Structures are given as C-alpha cells and as structure tokens.
Amino acid sequence: WGPFLACSFSCCSGRVAKGDSGDGADTEEVVAVLQESVCLPLEILSGEELENIIWSSHKGLATVVPGKEGHPAAITVTNPRYQGRVSFLEPSYSLHIINLSWEDSGLYQAQVNLRTSQIFAMRHYNLHVYRRLSEPQITVNFEISGEHACNMSLTCSVEKAGMDVTYSWLFWGDNADIVYEGPVLSTSWRPGDRALSYTCRASNPISNISSHPIPAGPFCADPGYPSEKPTAFCLLAKGLFLLLLLVILTMGLWVIRVQKRCKMSRMKKLRRNRMKLKKKGKPGPSPV
Hints:
By secondary structure, this protein is an alpha+beta fold. The chain has one helix at about 230-280, and strands at about 15-20, 25-35, 40, 50-55, 60-65, 75, 85-90, 95, 105-115, 120-130, 135-145, 150-155, 165-170, 175-180, 185-190, 195-205, 205-210, 215. About 20% of the residues lie in helices and about 40% in strands.
C-alpha cells in the first residue's frame, strides 16, 4: 500500500476485515452499529508530505488539505448528507462518522495525493451498518393428533431485524445439547417423552441474543393428557350452573304462583264479606 500503515488503535471502532473489491484492490470490510459511530482507518508513513486526501462515497464526501507548520488542516465537506457528522483524526486524517444511518452503508475510498510524487494511493472500504438485535419472539403452533402425538411448529423472529440475521435453536436431549439452524423448528412430543425446553438465538455481525426457554409442557399434554381435565371440569361447572339456574327459576315460578293464589283467595273472601253486608243492610217489606 505504499504510504499506508495498519489500523491505529485510536481509530479501530468498527470491526475490520480484508476483502476483495473485485477491481484488484483490497477492500476493508467494516462493520458498525446503527446510530453509533465508526472510523475508517488511514495512516501515513512518517516523512511523507501530503498534498491532500480526497474521501468519497458513491460521490464526493470531503477533501482534506493538511496544514503547514502547525496550522490546522483545511477541510471541505462536499456532501451535505455528512455535514456535521464527520471529522478527520490527525495525524492520518482517518474518517470518523457519527450517528450512522442505513444510508451510510456502502463503498468508501480515500485517495492520498503526495507532494513528492505524481502517483497517488487509494484505499477502499465497504461499510456495513447493522442494528443491535432485540430479544427474539417465539410463535408456537401445535396440534394433538389421533396417535396422541403433539406436533409443534416454533417460529423465531426479531422485530426490525434488518439484514444478515441468522437463527438457531438450542434444546436439551438425552445425551447432549442439540442445535438446529433456521428460524422455524418443527418437532413432536408424545406422552412419556422427556419434557424439552427450546431456546432461539438470533445473531447478526454485531450482536447475538437468546430468547427465554419455551417448555413443551404448556402446549402439549403431559402423560395422561391432564390438559383434558380442565375441559371436563369446565363442562361440569357449566352443567351445575345451568341446573342451579333451572332450580332458581322453578322456585321463583312456584313462589309467584303461591302468591297469586293467596291474593285471589283474599279477594274472594273480601267479596263474600261485602255480599253479606249488603244482604244485612236491605230493609224488609213494609206492612199494609
């Protein structure tokens, strides 16, 4: 690379790996975190006099002209999208970007022009921006077949996962931990089988996180299918409740009927008393 040295410790805030850009020049693969910062490392051999450094990404980004005799460098940011978000770390003028967004992903290059030579040097970077993953969520679908087997399908997902997310399942068998790759795990369970717990792990290049263990018990019945007992209990409770309502309704109708009979009996007695009073009050025939 001529005037370049390895990444300085003050600038290695992203994960860096060598790659191939496809044009014969090595490309550094840099991984960074969304809304955080990253540094694209650039170092110059001591004694080299720089004319300027031109940073670009998709199109022009900034031009740095080193100052003379202790004067600060003249920096011109030519891309408005990076205005206020970039700085250049002396003495090598490595590119430091803050508040990363998805749009910052992509190819970057630094063109170093020397005062003492007509030959310029180039350095290439490929920046990948990822989000830190949140805890995986597990969706469970299950059915109990006629052979008393519980067939389960577990699906693992992460909200706003982004690109390059991989999923794996960890569960404990009789002899060792078992790992299955992929977001969907299909399994079955029968009465008498060992009760397993399943854990999903989601990973991307900058983070990995596991879910809480999901036991099979709450979804598949234990031996004897005790999960059927609550159903029978609910049916029995409903039957008793309906019977109680019927008894209350019957008693209510009986009380109403008795009250109606008593009322009618009182009314008849009252009419008879009135009739007797009327007969007693009538005058007899007058003598001639």
